UniProtKB/TrEMBL annotation:
Keywords: Amino-acid transport, Signal, Transport. The keyword Ion transport does not apply. Residues 1-20 form the signal peptide. This is ABC transporter permease. Transmembrane segments: none annotated. Residues 21-364 form the Leucine-binding protein domain. Belongs to the leucine-binding protein family. GO terms for biological process: amino acid transport. InterPro entries: BCAA_transport, Leu-bd, Peripla_BP_I. It comes from the Bacteria.
Length: 392
């Protein structure tokens, strides 16, 4: 009997120990075409948790345990791993993934287990739109925020645009949002071109775009590119000399390695989510300094996003009185404002999308950088962007 009581006491002690731990699961594509995005996101998430906890990695004395799961950019695998994280590993909050297609597969799992999924950095509008459920929050920007910011930067009367995008949720949602946002500025989209995500030869797509735009009469003709991952078409398209048809190439921001193609296009304009020299605030100062000290490089596009997610989680748990209970967190996070490397963000109560600033940039060539540098034209604040709200 004594042995049984002792065994039960040990089990209770172990259960109590496990409960006194905040488990966060990062479910993301560590391997595959978007692994550079994933690595940045994970680094940023860890830095965000570190900054928000003053380096203790504890909230109200409870340690944070960060667990990793590799989706390999496979929607079915992402769905299975999220169920494993919630069900087998008792993860309280999940973060990720990188791919919009994987994210859409994961959303119903969060609803089934009634636990939070903080989406970062998957972009498709439908994540906080038609496929949304109340357990989904997103710190990453969505396609509409990208689109509206780029429309503000590029649109106007007399402007006609062709688009080139990848043929999946990220590309199609992005073009749809961009087309709608442009219409508000007096510009319009004359041609849409979609290609497989693994396309490496853009000759045929370019010829279709040039043919469609050749006879268009406009004060300004733009070819706007929406692309993620490798095989960026910008250099190929630029080599085909679209200026023969009076066409300028335009695009949004991207990670530093992708900006090497921007160096060929000084004066290129668009809107970006983040570039480390643009925001001026204490958190970004710390991020830039710390990243240089530890890695010898500046933080990149998705590092800032990952950090915003880490900061949001700690702020939410603190506002929930130290609780990681799902309902307490939802109550704390709806309408929550918190500080990030980009300044203030806010979770919109209606759909849990993070509202945030974007940045109109113009590319400049600088001798000490091997990429086109996005120079700030102006900050586009959250109040300037009428981001569509999810409807039932």
């Amino acid at each position: 009997m004594k042995r049984i009581i002792t065994a039960l006491a040990c089990a209770v002690a172990l259960t109590g120990s496990a409960a006194a731990e905040i488990r966060i699961g990062h479910v993301y594509g560590k391997t595959g075409p978007l692994e550079a995005y994933a690595a940045q996101s994970h680094t940023g998430l860890k830095l965000g948790l570190e900054y928000a906890t003053d380096g203790t990695m504890e909230i109200n004395g409870e340690p944070i345990k960060l667990m990793e799961y590799d989706t390999q950019l496979d929607p079915a695998r992402g769905r299975s791993l999220l169920a494993e994280a919630y069900g087998d590993d008792d993860v309280h909050i999940a973060v990720g993934p990188v791919s919009s297609g994987v994210a859409l597969a994961m959303l119903p799992v969060a609803e089934e287990y009634e636990r939070l999924l903080l989406v970062e950095p998957a972009v498709a509008d439908s994540i906080t739109g038609s496929n949304w459920n109340r357990y989904i929050f997103r710190t990453g920007r969505n396609s509409s925020q990208d689109a509206i910011a780029n429309a503000v930067a590029l649109g106007g009367e007399g402007t006609v645009v062709a688009t080139l995008a990848q043929d999946y949720a990220f590309g199609r949602d992005g073009v749809a949002a961009f087309r709608e946002a442009l219409s508000e500025t007096g510009a319009n989209v004359a041609h849409e071109e979609y290609v497989p995500t693994d396309t490496t030869d853009f000759t045929a797509a370019a010829e279709r775009i040039f043919t469609a735009m050749n006879d268009v009469e406009a004060e300004r003709k733009l070819l706007f590119i929406i692309w993620a991952g490798g095989g960026n078409p910008m250099s190929q398209l630029n080599a085909m000399d679209p200026s023969r048809f009076g066409i300028e190439i335009a695009t949004g921001g991207n990670i530093l390695p992708a900006l090497t193609a921007y160096k060929e296009l000084p004066g290129l304009e668009g809107a970006t989510y983040y570039y480390y020299e643009i925001p001026e605030n204490p958190i970004n100062d710390w991020l830039v300094k710390t990243h240089y000290e530890r890695f010898g490089t500046p933080p990149d596009f998705f590092t800032a996003g990952g950090m915003a997610a880490g900061l949001a989680l700690v702020e939410a748990i603190q506002q929930a009185g130290g609780s990681d209970d799902t309902e307490a967190l939802i109550e704390a996070m709806e309408g929550m404002r918190w500080e990030t490397p980009k300044g203030t963000m806010m979770f919109r109560p209606e759909d849990h999308q993070a509202l945030q600033s974007m940045y109109h940039f113009r590319t400049e060539v600088q001798e000490d950088k091997d990429y086109g540098v996005p120079i700030l034209v102006r900050e586009i604040t959250m109040d300037e962007m009428s981001v569509p709200v999810r409807t039932e």
